[in-house]
Design a protein that fits this description.
With about 140 residues, the chain is an alpha+beta fold. About 25% of the residues lie in helices and about 20% in strands. α2 crosses α3.
Protein backbone atom coordinates (compact mmCIF):
# COMPACT_ATOMS: atom_id res chain seq x y z
CA UNK A 1 0.00 0.00 0.00
CA UNK A 2 1.19 3.44 -0.76
CA UNK A 3 -1.01 5.33 1.74
CA UNK A 4 -2.15 7.82 -0.91
CA UNK A 5 1.37 8.86 -1.80
CA UNK A 6 2.99 8.45 -5.14
CA UNK A 7 5.70 5.79 -4.74
CA UNK A 8 8.32 7.57 -6.83
CA UNK A 9 7.82 10.87 -4.98
CA UNK A 10 8.23 9.13 -1.62
CA UNK A 11 11.51 7.60 -2.76
CA UNK A 12 12.73 11.00 -4.01
CA UNK A 13 11.94 12.84 -0.79
CA UNK A 14 12.93 10.36 1.91
CA UNK A 15 15.36 7.98 0.25
CA UNK A 16 18.97 8.36 -0.77
CA UNK A 17 19.65 10.18 -4.04
CA UNK A 18 19.23 7.97 -7.06
CA UNK A 19 21.53 7.73 -10.02
CA UNK A 20 25.17 6.86 -10.48
CA UNK A 21 27.81 8.23 -8.13
CA UNK A 22 30.39 8.41 -10.93
CA UNK A 23 30.56 8.41 -14.72
CA UNK A 24 33.28 8.19 -17.38
CA UNK A 25 34.99 11.51 -18.00
CA UNK A 26 34.37 11.39 -21.76
CA UNK A 27 30.65 10.75 -21.21
CA UNK A 28 30.43 13.58 -18.67
CA UNK A 29 32.15 16.12 -20.95
CA UNK A 30 29.78 15.17 -23.76
CA UNK A 31 26.67 15.21 -21.56
CA UNK A 32 27.37 18.70 -20.16
CA UNK A 33 27.85 19.99 -23.72
CA UNK A 34 31.54 20.88 -23.46
CA UNK A 35 32.47 18.66 -26.41
CA UNK A 36 30.19 18.13 -29.41
CA UNK A 37 30.37 14.36 -29.74
CA UNK A 38 31.22 11.41 -27.58
CA UNK A 39 33.92 10.28 -30.01
CA UNK A 40 35.51 13.76 -29.93
CA UNK A 41 35.54 13.60 -26.12
CA UNK A 42 37.24 10.20 -26.25
CA UNK A 43 39.79 11.51 -28.75
CA UNK A 44 40.52 14.54 -26.53
CA UNK A 45 41.19 12.22 -23.59
CA UNK A 46 43.44 9.95 -25.65
CA UNK A 47 45.39 12.99 -26.92
CA UNK A 48 46.09 14.09 -23.34
CA UNK A 49 43.93 17.24 -23.43
CA UNK A 50 41.82 16.22 -20.41
CA UNK A 51 43.00 16.15 -16.79
CA UNK A 52 41.06 15.07 -13.72
CA UNK A 53 42.36 16.38 -10.39
CA UNK A 54 45.65 17.35 -12.03
CA UNK A 55 46.40 14.00 -13.66
CA UNK A 56 46.02 13.07 -17.34
CA UNK A 57 42.75 11.19 -17.79
CA UNK A 58 42.01 8.20 -19.95
CA UNK A 59 38.52 8.13 -21.52
CA UNK A 60 37.25 5.47 -19.09
CA UNK A 61 38.38 7.29 -15.94
CA UNK A 62 35.45 8.03 -13.66
CA UNK A 63 34.62 11.47 -12.26
CA UNK A 64 32.64 12.13 -9.08
CA UNK A 65 30.99 15.21 -7.63
CA UNK A 66 33.71 17.60 -6.46
CA UNK A 67 36.38 16.51 -8.97
CA UNK A 68 38.22 19.16 -10.97
CA UNK A 69 38.22 18.57 -14.73
CA UNK A 70 40.58 20.58 -16.94
CA UNK A 71 40.52 20.30 -20.68
CA UNK A 72 42.19 22.17 -23.49
CA UNK A 73 40.07 23.63 -26.26
CA UNK A 74 41.29 25.96 -29.03
CA UNK A 75 44.59 26.50 -27.23
CA UNK A 76 42.98 27.56 -23.92
CA UNK A 77 42.32 25.57 -20.76
CA UNK A 78 38.84 25.22 -19.25
CA UNK A 79 38.69 24.57 -15.49
CA UNK A 80 35.45 22.88 -14.38
CA UNK A 81 34.33 21.45 -11.05
CA UNK A 82 31.82 18.59 -11.22
CA UNK A 83 28.58 19.55 -9.42
CA UNK A 84 26.24 16.87 -10.82
CA UNK A 85 26.70 13.54 -12.54
CA UNK A 86 24.96 13.33 -15.91
CA UNK A 87 25.00 10.26 -18.14
CA UNK A 88 22.78 11.53 -20.95
CA UNK A 89 23.14 14.70 -23.00
CA UNK A 90 20.75 17.35 -21.69
CA UNK A 91 19.70 20.85 -22.64
CA UNK A 92 22.08 23.76 -22.15
CA UNK A 93 20.32 25.26 -19.08
CA UNK A 94 20.41 21.92 -17.25
CA UNK A 95 23.98 21.23 -18.39
CA UNK A 96 25.18 24.52 -16.87
CA UNK A 97 24.00 23.37 -13.44
CA UNK A 98 26.21 20.25 -13.63
CA UNK A 99 29.51 22.17 -13.36
CA UNK A 100 31.11 25.33 -12.03
CA UNK A 101 33.42 27.08 -14.49
CA UNK A 102 36.62 28.58 -13.04
CA UNK A 103 38.23 29.31 -16.42
CA UNK A 104 40.01 32.64 -16.82
CA UNK A 105 38.46 34.83 -19.52
CA UNK A 106 39.97 34.47 -22.96
CA UNK A 107 41.98 37.46 -24.17
CA UNK A 108 40.26 39.59 -26.75
CA UNK A 109 41.67 39.76 -30.29
CA UNK A 110 42.55 43.40 -29.58
CA UNK A 111 45.02 42.27 -26.86
CA UNK A 112 47.02 40.19 -29.34
CA UNK A 113 50.17 41.76 -30.80
CA UNK A 114 49.52 43.66 -33.97
CA UNK A 115 50.68 42.09 -37.21
CA UNK A 116 53.13 43.93 -39.35
CA UNK A 117 51.23 45.33 -42.29
CA UNK A 118 53.08 46.22 -45.46
CA UNK A 119 51.68 48.26 -48.29
CA UNK A 120 50.87 46.26 -51.37
CA UNK A 121 53.69 46.48 -53.91
CA UNK A 122 56.21 47.84 -51.39
CA UNK A 123 58.78 45.30 -52.51
CA UNK A 124 60.97 43.10 -50.37
CA UNK A 125 61.15 43.79 -46.63
CA UNK A 126 64.13 45.76 -45.40
CA UNK A 127 66.64 44.17 -43.05
CA UNK A 128 64.98 45.86 -40.06
CA UNK A 129 61.51 44.68 -41.14
CA UNK A 130 62.87 41.16 -41.68
CA UNK A 131 64.20 41.08 -38.10
CA UNK A 132 60.83 42.26 -36.82
CA UNK A 133 59.07 39.53 -38.80
CA UNK A 134 61.46 36.88 -37.48
CA UNK A 135 60.92 38.06 -33.89
CA UNK A 136 57.16 38.00 -34.41
CA UNK A 137 57.27 34.46 -35.78
CA UNK A 138 59.16 33.32 -32.69
CA UNK A 139 62.61 32.79 -34.01
CA UNK A 140 65.37 34.33 -35.96
CA UNK A 141 67.91 33.42 -38.55
CA UNK A 142 69.83 31.23 -36.12
CA UNK A 143 67.17 28.72 -35.16
CA UNK A 144 68.00 25.12 -34.29
CA UNK A 145 67.56 22.88 -37.28
Amino acid sequence: MNNGRHPSRASQVGGPPRGPSSVRVDVWLWSVRQIKSRSAATAACKAGHVRVNGETAKPAQHVRVGDEVRYRVDGFDRFLTVERILTKRVGAPVARTAYTDFSPPRPSPMDAPAAIIRARGAGRPTKKERRQLDALMGGGRHRAR
